[in-house]
Amino acid sequence: MNDRIGADVHFAARLLHEGRLVAMPTETVYGLAANALDAHAVRHIYNVKGRPSNNPLIVHVADKELIGQYVAEMPQTAERLIAAFCPGPLTVVLPRAATVPDIVTAGRDTVAIRVPAHPMARQLLHETGLPLAAPSANPSGYISPTTAAHVWDTLGDKVSYILDGGPCTGGIESTIVGFDGGVPVILRHGVVTQEQILQVAGDVRTYSGKKILAPGMALSHYSPRTPLMLVDDPGNVVSALPGVYLGIITYESNCSALPREQQIVLSAAGNDEIAAKHLYAAMHDMDKRGYELIAVKRFPDKGVGVALNDRLERAAHGNDYNTILKKSNSLYDSK
Ligand code: TXA
Ligand code: MG
Predict the structure, then answer these.
(1) Is residue 105 within 6 Å of ligand 1 at its C-beta?
(2) Quick one: which atom of ligand 1 is closest to the CA of 32?
């Protein structure tokens, strides 16, 4: 038995009060939590993740009524979105109140804040009575964890305790929304879709400027160690890369050009929410198998598929057939 993994919320709350780090389940991915009001504890998060100090953290609170304590201004559209989607996988970025330490916002004048819906996260937040700063519980740049075992595999005993709340149901990170003159601007696509935000707010934009507003959205992110490519037709990959040992993650059906053992089908029924739930676990699994390439079939570009393709584009950044073939050939040359 691993005594650093368990379901003891009291114990986890005590550790957080002592300034230690606890991994907590949320409905999106597991977070690496610390008391957001304790700058020393929050610094520890950056160290453990190897996270650049200019990349701010999301503050998690127990109830939507608490958001007001940490923000200086609340546009009406933000209020409407919060009423519609919190608790849930929506993060709002708003002007911050002086109560939020600089290290949480990486010195910015805005704070990202959300109310997780996972019962164990809510219990933990209520029990501590604290706001918790929590990025995804993975080393910076790697795939986010959707099970307690993923956290253990990548961060291990750098975390005081891992609260095990089972596999995350959402499977990808929250949707992050900023506001420009009251108009919601999507900074990171996620489980709450652009269509849903439009319905509630009456207007929505996707941030398309050159300046990176959410520093975690830099290219090259969410990557497994194995090179990954996002492709329209997995069958083409098999013929374009003869002799390359590869795994394929497909949306709804197997690819006939490759043995089944080398494939993971995310949702045989073609349900994009189920596919989202299983995507990161499939990437974690395939990353352990020694493939030279993981090819993932592109999702239909609607609903949560937009967020999935966005994550995969970043994970695939810099990889193409030529680089994969070259790497593979040099591997054989050196044998
Ligand atoms: O679902 C989630 O959001 C998960 C769970 C654990 O809550 N958390 C998560 O945190 O994905 P993290 O740190 O991996 O991603 C947070 C993103 C980063 O891209 C960061 O740059 C952005 O939020 N962010 C945080 N504060 C911000 C701010 N004030 N302005 C703009 N972007 C901000
Ligand atoms: Mg992250």
Answers:
(1) yes
(2) 6
Pairwise CA distance, residues 57 & 112, whole Å: 7
Atom of ligand 1 nearest to the CA of 144: 14
Which pairing describes strands 90-95 and 183-188: parallel, antiparallel, or unpaired? unpaired
Backbone conformation region of residue 107, classed left if phi is above 0, alpha if psi is from -120 to 50, else beta: left
What's the DSSP call for residue 145?
Answer: P
Task: Please tell me the pTM assigned to this model.
Answer: 0.95
CA distance 265 to 89: 25
Q: What is the mean pLDDT of each run of 10 residues along the chain (335 residues)?
A: 92 98 98 98 97 95 98 97 98 97 96 98 98 97 96 95 98 96 94 96 82 58 92 94 95 91 95 95 97 96 93 92 87 62
Ligand (nearest to CA of 188): 1
What's the gap in Å between 214 CA and the centre of ligand 2? 11
Q: What is the whole-number distance in angstroms between the Cα of residue 32 and the centre of ligand 2?
A: 10
The CA 333 to ligand 2 mean position distance, Å, reads 37
Q: How far is CA 25 from CA 1, 6, 33, 265, in A?
A: 20, 11, 10, 25
Which DSSP string do the residues of 105-169 spell out, in sequence order? Answer: HTT-SEEEEE----HHHHHHHHHHTS-EE--BSS-TTBPPPSSHHHHHHHHGGGSSEEE---S-S
Rounded to the nearest 5°, which phi and psi values hold at 107? 80, 0
